[in-house]
Structure formats: structure tokens, C-alpha cells
Design brief:
Bound molecules: NADP nicotinamide-adenine-dinucleotide phosphate
Number of strands: 20
Strand order of the largest sheet: 12-13-14-11-10-16-17
Distance between the termini: 57 Å
Largest sheet: 7 strands, mixed
Number of helices: 14
Helix content: 40-55%
Structural class: alpha/beta
Strand content: 15-25%
Shape: globular
Length: about 450
């Protein structure tokens, strides 16, 4: 895949970038190693000052950064600006809380004193996706840098200007050179970078296939990985639910980021008693969404990030339809304009054997399932290979407890939208990956948890 900015709204190639040569990659890895030797001993207060400065720059230039994101991957500008602000929030969260998370933890043993000390590991490689081009990077970088590691970013090939802007932010914030570097390289260079002795661990957010191949190389070289992969989150609505609130959230939960979010609600699982009403109202709401230029503040639904995402999504939709699924809204690409536009689509009544059974639909397509009971809802929700998030709607306490306990997911949100929050750990189970970002758990993924015993 070429490293380039291709406007998803128009299909126009705006800028292309030469990937780094092996020689330049080598120089950057060496710089990362050299930087780590010094940076690891930098006082936490100093790191916090720099990360807070990064937050200041993000907030100051949020419009400029937001526009780069929208230009490169097509999310509505207002959402892009909100993402820049959230990235600043992530920086401030770790500036404030890292000293607490990294403090020595005393333990009572047979020693005169014993404790746990958290120490950095070294250069960490982050392989990141284009869908939240700023937030995904900052939620890795803020804890990793606060812990004293140094960061190497291999961003998705379609967001190079975001990748360069982020490197510039860390430089301007005052971090010593080499503490955070962007590597403009294709996926083909990732294996060699992980294998390099100077790189100590890696994190990848993206598809299952990318995660599996990164983890295979890391495993061979005995290096830790965190994987944040795909999802097909259920959105369960039971009879006792507050229907108004569920309806409002359902649209956002599916359409956020033009439908391209790992934690988007992808499967709407609704009990029979309210399914007719839910189906009708969801279709009305989807049809009312304004599809168009993501730079326009009125736009609800912009283009998909690349033509291949559109093709893959449409192929899944057409296969469902051909096999007998019913279309409640949308259902085919919008051929009346350039760019990667796909309409808000709802499919239902799936026979067995369609992609709706077990695949992630990465775009504005809602899959609607009717169920007879909470038992069937939970069974349906768990009957997929993924386990990232789950949103469930009920006002009944017993139902709530069952949903919390029985849903197979890294996160369960009751009567709310599944979202990432710096204060809460984020990650999945099953084929959605392993490890956690954010919260105290996130900063502890890339540290040496050193046991100290003194007599
Ligand atoms: P992708 O193709 O896997 O790309 C993600 C990153 O991995 C890019 O930087 C890509 O580089 C790189 N990559 C691709 N193949 C690789 C390989 N074989 N070895 C090493 N690196 C490789 O993912 P995507 O389709 O763009 O992103 C969408 C997926 O990410 C969805 O499944 C979504 O659910 C998931 N996602 C998960 C989370 C989460 O937190 N769990 C968050 C956001 C997205 P190139 O661009 O150069 O190919």
C-alpha cells in the first residue's frame, strides 16, 4: 500500500511519501535506543510537564489537526476536532495519574522490606490504524512515555500527515529528540523492526490478520505484545428498556466515525415485543442522516476511508441480500458522486450462513436480530468470535446483573454507548485481542514489574 494522502471524499491523491529506506530505519532505531538511555532517568515531573505541553498544543491547534484527519480519512470535522480534544485529555490524565500508577508498591514478606517497582522497557513499536488517527496514538503514547519508554509509530499508510503531525507535537512539547518518532514505512517492514534487538515490545490496533502476523514475529523473538483488534459489538434492547434513550444512542453507536469504529454497535439484538417499533424507528433515523462532505458541519455521515473498505463492506452486504436477508434501509453504494460513500444500511432476517453470523461489518451497516428472550439475546450476542464491547438496555436489575456477568466482552455498558475513557481500561477478549490500554492497566502493560526484596 502506497504511503499517501488520498482524499476519501473526492478520490484525489493529494500527497505521496517515500517510505524510509532501511538505512534511515536503522538510524531511527539507534536514535530511539540512545534517547531511551537518557530519557528513562528523566524525573516524572519533567515528563508530566512535557506531556501537558503536548496537550496544550493539541487544544491550541485542534482545528488544524482535525482538518488533517478529515482530509486523510473522511471523519466528520466536528468529530475530528473532538478527537484531538480527547487526545489532550488522555495526555493530562496520565500526566496527573502516572506518578500514582508508577509509585513503588510495598509488600509484606519475610524480607526487611520488599516492594514492587515499575521500570520502563525501552523502545516500543506502535502499529496503528487510520480510524482514530490521533486518539489511537495518544492513548498508546501518553502512558508509554510517562512510564519512561520511548515510542516508535508505524501509522496506517493512508494517514501519513497525521503521523508526521503527531511526531511534531511531541517535539514541540519539549520531549528530547528520539523519544517519539514516526516511521513512514509500509506493513512489510514491521517484522524486521520487531525483530530488532533494540525494540522491546509492540502494540497493534487493527485487523485480526495484522495482529496475528505481528504477534507471531514478536513471539518468535520473545517480546510482549498488546493487540486491539476487531469487534462486532452487540447492542441489546430488552422490553424494559427506556426506548427513547436506546433509539437515540443506537444511531450514534452505529454511525460514529462513519461506521468505522471497533466498538461501534454492529449487531442490534432486540426482543420480539418491541422489535417492530425499533426496526421502524431505526430505519427512519438512518434515512434522515445527511450524507456528504465531512468538512461540512451539517454532515452526519462522511465517506469510508478507502475504496477497498467500501468494496469489502458492499461484498458482505450483497452476500447477505443474495442469501435472503431483508433490506430495511440503504443496501448499495451511492453511485451518484465521487468518493467512498456508502448509505446508512440496515439488514435483517438473515438465514444461516451469511457474513452476519461471524464477521465484522466495518462501515455504516446495522445488522438487526430479533430474539424471544434475554437468554436468546445473550446467546446471540456471544455467538461470535469477537469479544470487545457490549451495550445493553434494560431497567430491570436482575436482567442487568445477568448481562454484566454473562456477556463475553472486554466491556459492558448498561444503558449507554460503549466508549473509551482514559479512566477505564480498554481491550477485548476472544479474537478481539488481549492486553489493555488506558487506566492504570494500560500504563502497566509496558513496564518491568520488578520485585525487590531486601534483608
Ligand atoms: P489493518 O489493515 O490491520 O491496519 C492497521 C495497521 O496495521 C496499519 O498500520 C497497517 O499498515 C498495519 N498492518 C497491516 N497488515 C500488517 C501486517 N501483516 N503486519 C504488520 N502490520 C500490518 O486494519 P484496518 O483494516 O486499517 O483497521 C480496521 C480494523 O482495526 C478493524 O478490524 C477494527 O475493528 C480494528 N480496530 C480495533 C480497535 C481496538 O481498539 N480494538 C480500534 C480501532 C480499530 P498499512 O496501513 O501500511 O497496511
Amino acid at each position: 500500500m502506497a504511503i499517501a494522502t488520498i482524499n476519501p471524499t473526492t478520490g484525489e491523491t493529494l500527497r505521496t511519501f517515500e517510505p524510509l529506506t532501511d538505512k534511515l530505519i536503522e538510524a531511527k532505531l539507534e536514535q530511539a535506543q540512545q534517547a531511551f538511555e537518557q530519557y528513562r532517568w528523566t524525573p516524572l515531573a519533567q515528563r508530566a510537564e512535557w506531556i501537558n505541553k503536548a496537550a496544550d498544543i493539541l487544544v491550541r491547534d485542534r482545528e488544524r489537526f482535525g482538518k488533517i484527519m478529515t482530509l486523510e480519512m473522511g471523519k466528520p470535522l466536528k468529530a475530528a476536532i473532538a478527537e484531538v480534544e480527547k487526545s489532550a485529555l488522555g495526555c493530562r490524565y496520565y500526566a496527573e495519574n502516572a506518578p500514582k500508577f508508577l509509585a513503588d508498591v510495598p509488600a509484606s514478606t519475610d524480607a526487611s522490606h520488599s516492594f514492587i517497582r515499575y521500570q520502563p522497557l525501552g523502545p516500543i513499536l506502535a502499529v496503528m490504524p487510520w480510524n482514530f488517527p490521533f486518539w489511537q496514538v495518544f492513548r498508546f503514547a501518553a502512558p508509554a512515555l510517562m512510564a519512561g519508554n520511548v515510542g516508535l509509530l508505524k501509522h496506517a499508510s493512508n494517514v501519513p500527515q497525521c503521523a508526521l503531525a503527531i511526531e511534531e507535537i511531541f517535539q514541540q512539547a519539549g520531549f528530547p529528540s528520539g523519544v517519539f518518532q514516526t516511521l513512514l514505512v509500509g506493513a512489510d517492514k514491521v517484522a524486521a523492526i520487531i525483530a530488532d534487538e533494540r525494540v522491546k515490545a509492540a502494540t497493534l490496533t487493527g485487523s485480526e490478520s495484522a495482529g496475528a502476523s505481528l504477534a507471531a514475529v514478536a513471539g518468535k523473538h520473545i517480546k510482549k505484545t498488546v493487540l486491539e483488534l476487531g469487534g462486532s459489538d452487540p447492542f441489546i434492547v430488552l422490553e424494559s428498556a427506556d426506548m427513547e434513550a436506546a433509539m437515540e444512542t443506537a444511531v450514534t453507536a452505529r454511525m460514529l466515525n462513519n461506521g468505522q469504529s471497533c466498538i461501534a454497535a454492529k449487531r442490534f439484538i432486540v426482543v420480539d415485543a418491541i422489535a417492530d417499533e425499533f426496526e421502524k424507528r431505526l430505519a427512519e433515523k438512518f434515512q434522515a442522516l445527511k450524507v456528504g462532505d465531512p468538512m461540512n458541519p451539517e454532515t452526519d455521515l462522511g465517506p469510508l476511508a478507502t475504496p477497498s473498505i467500501l468494496q469489502d463492506l458492499d461484498q458482505q452486504v450483497q452476500e447477505c441480500i443474495t442469501k435472503g436477508a431483508r433490506v430495511l434501509a440503504g443496501g448499495k453504494p451511492l453511485g451518484d458522486r465521487p468518493g467512498n460513500f456508502y448509505p446508512a444500511t440496515i439488514l435483517t432476517d438473515f438465514p444461516a450462513g451469511t457474513p452476519a453470523d461471524n464477521e465484522e461489518f466495518f462501515g455504516p451497516v446495522a445488522l438487526l436480530f430479533r430474539v424471544a428472550s434475554i437468554d436468546e439475546a445473550i446467546q446471540r450476542a456471544n455467538a461470535i468470535p469477537f469479544g470487545l464491547g457490549a451495550s445493553a438496555w434494560t431497567t430491570d436489575e436482575e436482567e442487568r446483573d445477568r448481562l454484566i456477568n454473562e456477556l463475553e466482552a472486554g466491556a459492558v455498558f448498561i444503558n449507554g454507548l460503549v466508549k473509551s475513557d482514559p479512566r477505564l481500561p480498554f481491550g477485548g477478549i476472544k479474537r478481539s485481542g488481549y492486553g489493555r490500554e488506558l487506566g492504570s492497566q494500560g500504563i502497566h502493560e509496558f513496564v518491568n514489574i520488578k520485585t525487590v526484596w531486601v534483608k
